[in-house]
Design a protein that fits this description.
Layout lengths: L1 E6 L2 E6 L6 E11 L5 H11 L9 H10 L4 E6 L5 E11 L10 H14 L3 E2 L2 E2 L1 H17 L4 H14 L12 H4 L4 H14 L1 E7 L3 H15 L21 E6 L5 E8 L9 H11 L6 H9 L3 E8 L8 E8 L4 H17 L4 H15 L6 H15 L10 H9 L3 H10 L1 E9 L1 H7 L1
Parallel strand pairs: 2-8, 9-13
Antiparallel strand pairs: 1-2, 3-5, 3-8, 4-5, 6-7, 10-12, 10-13, 11-12
Helix pairs in contact: 1-4, 1-7, 3-8, 9-12, 9-14, 9-15, 10-11, 11-15, 12-14
Length: about 425
């Protein structure tokens, strides 16, 4: 993957990806997450995906994509750490496979740039009808959050953990604000994004000439915008605090327990390989301590796993999520903490260490097997660098080599830094009283 700055706050990342018969053009916008615009930014991709100025409705857009041998347009928001992120992406077959010699890559770029920079406006704002429809969709999604208790518990724990910090902005939006959003407000949020976002143009599966043409087309769009890119938020971490325990009661068969641990400082790039292996050992694999001991041996949880919380890892947070029989939550929490302490102070066998390493390496070997995998990897690397645009971008092979070099002491060093900050529980009311 080659990466270069092509304008202030704008970078091009390019990989010819010759082994694929498809190509992909993606435009990523990243800007600091703000509480006051979170709901508008959550709604924005839903409206933008419906069409753009040259294809103002979904019927015409679908027909256009079908004529391009089933090309695909996606516009989505990707909450990542402390940034609002919006991605416009078009994927389709390469020019060389077109039956009649069509210049497909040029069409893909035109659609991506059209969706990103020329949305369908009515009277200078987003189409009120489209906004109204997608507001209902967003509202329904936010109302339904409570129905997925596993996800709801995680979100509530995050809100308690991050509080009013930038990482605490609810990038999925705020239910109470959806009805009040107007086309003018959404348009203002969109224009703010164009002015202030850092832009990453990712071109995969195209040759040098095609990539240069796409780059020039993007730069031509930016000439018309009064750009003032904001720096991405510096990596942050919540400080260590005395553990906070919160409980909500619902009529439910399986209790949900979410525990958040902090490193107390931002994770550094050189720690990433050790973090990956630490998570696999503790609760991120079928040979982990949480799976084999808390779930299988002690039968305390229906599921129990650990992961580093954010996409970028920069917030230095480990999450342990578990499904527990109501009334056994205290036992489960104690067992989860015991397994962490045992890894920090007790032996780690060569067999379990290497099993986890091999499992991670096997999974990482598949990163380059799809355009989406390649794009996700490198864009997360860009976000991990954060405000330091000169930070090195690690390739999958470099990451695999780093993982091969990790030692048990490095893993223990990471695990020993983790302290419990928030324990959030959803359970039946009678079970909560019994636990007390």
């Amino acid at each position: 993957m080659k990466r270069m700055e092509i304008a202030p706050g704008v970078h091009l990342s390019w990989d010819p990806a010759q082994k694929f018969n498809r190509c992909r053009v993606s435009i990523h916008f990243a800007l600091p997450a703000k509480r006051e615009t979170a709901t508008a930014h959550a709604l924005l991709p839903l409206v933008m995906e419906r069409g753009y100025a040259d294809c103002p409705d979904m019927t015409r857009l679908t027909k256009k994509l079908a004529k391009l041998y089933g090309a695909d347009l996606t516009v989505d928001a990707r909450p990542m750490g402390c940034s609002h992120n919006l991605c416009v992406s078009v994927t389709g077959i390469k020019d060389q496979f077109a039956l009649e010699g069509e210049t497909l890559t040029r069409e893909y770029a035109s659609i991506a740039l059209g969706a990103a920079f020329h949305p369908y406006f009515v009277g200078g704002t987003f189409d009120p009808e489209a906004v109204g429809i997608e507001k209902q969709m967003l509202k329904k999604a936010l109302e339904d959050e409570i129905n997925d208790k596993r996800l709801y518990c995680l979100h509530q724990a995050n809100r308690e953990f991050f509080g009013d910090s930038p990482a605490g902005v609810r990038q999925e939006g705020y239910l109470e604000e959806v009805d009040g959003l107007t086309p003018a407000m959404l348009t203002a949020a969109y224009q703010q994004m164009l002015r202030t976002a850092n832009i990453e143009l990712l071109v995969l599966g195209c040759d040098a000439a095609q990539t240069a043409a796409i780059r020039d087309a993007l730069l031509a769009e930016l000439v018309c915008i009064d750009r003032a890119p904001l720096p991405l938020v510096e990596n942050m971490a919540m400080p260590a605090i005395a553990p906070v325990h919160k409980t909500e009661n619902y009529d439910m068969v399986q209790a949900k327990l979410c525990m958040l641990f902090t490193l107390g400082q931002p994770m550094q790039p050189q720690q990433l390989a050790a973090v990956r292996l630490a998570m696999a050992l503790y609760g991120g694999s079928v040979t982990s301590r949480l799976f084999l001991n808390v779930r299988e041996r002690d039968h305390l949880c229906y599921y129990c796993s650990s992961s580093f919380q954010s996409f970028t890892g920069s917030t230095g947070v480990m999450m342990v999520g578990s499904g527990v029989e109501p009334g056994r939550e205290a036992q489960a929490e104690a067992a989860i903490l015991k397994e962490l302490n045992d890894l920090c102070t007790g032996p780690i066998t060569d067999e379990e260490f290497e099993d986890c390493r091999r499992g991670l390496l096997s999974g990482m070997n598949g990163i380059e097997d799809s355009l989406g995998g390649i794009e996700s990897w490198y864009y997360i690397e860009v976000l991990r660098a954060g405000a330091n645009s000169a930070a090195p971008i690690q390739s999958p092979e470099q990451a695999r080599n780093a993982l091969r070099a990790v030692t048990k002491d490095e893993v223990r060093d990471i695990l020993r830094r983790l302290t419990l900050s928030v324990s959030y529980l959803l359970t039946k009311e009678d079970a909560a009283h019994a636990a007390e």
